[in-house]
């Protein structure tokens, strides 16, 4: 029985990057042996075990065979006679197919170290084309390492294009797609993720709303916005809202209702988490108003604030403002003034205290009406003071 550190931990150590997660492969052992040593099985159909003390994952060396469509269409074979090389050859990229033994010696049967030096993302074997999820994974790795000079090998891009044309991408579950898309948006160069998907024809399958931007070169604006989001370390909901907003404006430049329907459709397609869905819709509907906040009269400003639960969810309003700033990054000081105007108006509304109205005898439905009335007055007073 031999234990090897594999995959990302080896890759990132060689790149001089922080290692955040360690995966292990066990060669020459059976599931029964692992359990006898105290390792806990993760699932009945997958040969992965949790270390009894550290909780890290240890997988038996295994081979796999394509048995159906999509990411889950594989049959695994794990046995003590499966070698480390057998296990590594099933991996996606050569830079992820390296291992270290218990003495720290590198095992590199597929020239991953050479591809690290050449800054090349290259598939390990033709079996790459059996797993459609690898299209998204390679594009994500390109987004992660683009700033280090990495690019996708031409021959790997050919296999990715074959997968995009095969119909296999449609077999991926929404959850798996969203996991890769969301992780890619959080990489240092999310625009590279979009470009690689476009280069291999996968963007038209997965995000046709974004793909259409390339027809009129509007993708360049999207790329600038996504790069700005990454530079400012914006969280996922803001990056997702920016992606959908720019895409919707490119596809449907004039009708807000149609843009919102497009945003809703993409959110539904990938079962996007509620926080990301809500912010994307709010930005899609109200970004234009936020961009000219100082021009809004008191009634319109109050109506805008009503759509944001600024009392119980102040962070969502801040994310909305941040997303608007990312989208209109070329505005500079003028946009900052609009953002300050919105924040000050929200502060004026928050300054209205419920306990004051309760002390005046309001309760029940009357209290709700009085609170709304006083908040509207606060916005009117604020707007008058800014004229």
Automatic annotation (TrEMBL):
Q: Which SUPFAM superfamilies match?
A: Nucleotidyltransferase, Poly A polymerase C-terminal region-like
Q: Name a GO molecular-function annotation.
A: magnesium ion binding
Binding residues for Mg(2+), per the UniProt record?
21, 23
InterPro entries tied to this protein: CCA_bact (IPR012006), NT_sf (IPR043519), PolA_pol_head_dom (IPR002646), PolyA_RNA-bd (IPR032828), tRNA_CCA-adding_enzyme (IPR050124)
List other remarks: A single active site specifically recognizes both ATP and CTP and is responsible for their addition.
Annotated binding of ATP, by residue:
8, 11, 91, 137, 140
Q: What is this protein called?
A: CCA-adding enzyme
Which reactions fall under this protein's catalytic activity?
a tRNA with a 3' CCA end + 2 CTP + ATP = a tRNA with a 3' CCACCA end + 3 diphosphate; a tRNA precursor + 2 CTP + ATP = a tRNA with a 3' CCA end + 3 diphosphate
Q: Which UniProt keywords apply?
A: ATP-binding, Magnesium, Metal-binding, Nucleotide-binding, Nucleotidyltransferase, RNA repair, RNA-binding, Transferase, tRNA processing
Give the tRNA nucleotidyltransferase/poly(A) polymerase RNA and SrmB- binding domain ranges. Answer: 149-211
GO terms for biological process, alphabetical: RNA repair; tRNA 3'-terminal CCA addition
EC no. given is 2.7.7.72
Cofactor names: Mg(2+)
Family as reported in the entry's similarity comment:
Belongs to the tRNA nucleotidyltransferase/poly(A) polymerase family. Bacterial CCA-adding enzyme type 2 subfamily.
Which positions fall inside the Poly A polymerase head domain?
4-122
Question: Where do the annotations place CTP binding?
Answer: 8, 11, 91, 137, 140
Name a Pfam family for this protein.
PolyA_pol_RNAbd
């Amino acid at each position: 029985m031999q234990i090897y550190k594999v995959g990302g931990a080896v890759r990132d150590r060689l790149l001089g990057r922080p290692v955040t997660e360690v995966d292990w492969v066990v060669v020459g052992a059976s599931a029964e042996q692992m359990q006898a040593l105290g390792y806990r099985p993760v699932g009945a159909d997958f040969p992965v075990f949790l270390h009894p003390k550290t909780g890290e994952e240890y997988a038996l060396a295994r081979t796999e065979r394509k048995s159906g469509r999509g990411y889950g269409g594989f049959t695994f074979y794990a046995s003590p006679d499966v070698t480390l090389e057998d296990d590594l050859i099933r991996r996606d990229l050569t830079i992820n197919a390296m291992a270290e033994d218990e003495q720290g010696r590198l095992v590199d049967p597929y020239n991953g170290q050479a591809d690290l030096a050449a800054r090349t993302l290259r598939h390990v074997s033709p079996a790459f084309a059996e797993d459609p999820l690898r299209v998204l994974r390679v594009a994500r790795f390109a987004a992660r390492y683009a700033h280090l000079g990495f690019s996708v090998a031409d021959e790997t891009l050919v296999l990715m294009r074959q997968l995009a044309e095969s119909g296999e991408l449609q077999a991926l579950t929404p959850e798996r797609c969203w996991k890769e898309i969301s992780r890619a948006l959080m990489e240092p160069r999310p625009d590279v993720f979009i470009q690689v998907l476009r280069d291999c024809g996968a963007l038209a399958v997965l995000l046709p709303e974004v793909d259409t931007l390339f027809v009129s070169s509007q993708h360049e604006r999207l790329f600038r916005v996504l790069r700005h989001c990454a530079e400012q370390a914006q969280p996922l909901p803001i990056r997702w809202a920016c992606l959908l907003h720019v895409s919707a404006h490119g596809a449907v430049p004039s009708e807000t209702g149609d843009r919102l329907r497009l945003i809703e459709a993409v959110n539904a397609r990938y079962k996007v988490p509620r926080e990301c869905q809500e912010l994307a819709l709010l930005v899609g509907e109200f970004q234009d108003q936020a961009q000219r906040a100082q021009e809004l009269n008191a009634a319109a400003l109050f109506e805008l604030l009503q759509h944001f639960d600024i009392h119980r969810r102040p962070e969502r309003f801040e994310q909305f403002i941040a997303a608007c700033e990312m989208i209109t990054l070329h505005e500079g000081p003028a946009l900052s003034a609009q953002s300050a105007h919105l924040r000050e108006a929200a502060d004026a509304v928050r300054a209205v205290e419920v306990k004051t109205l309760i002390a005046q005898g309001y309760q029940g439905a009357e209290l709700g009406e009085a609170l709304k009335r006083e908040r509207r007055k606060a916005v009117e007073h604020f707007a008058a003071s800014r004229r």
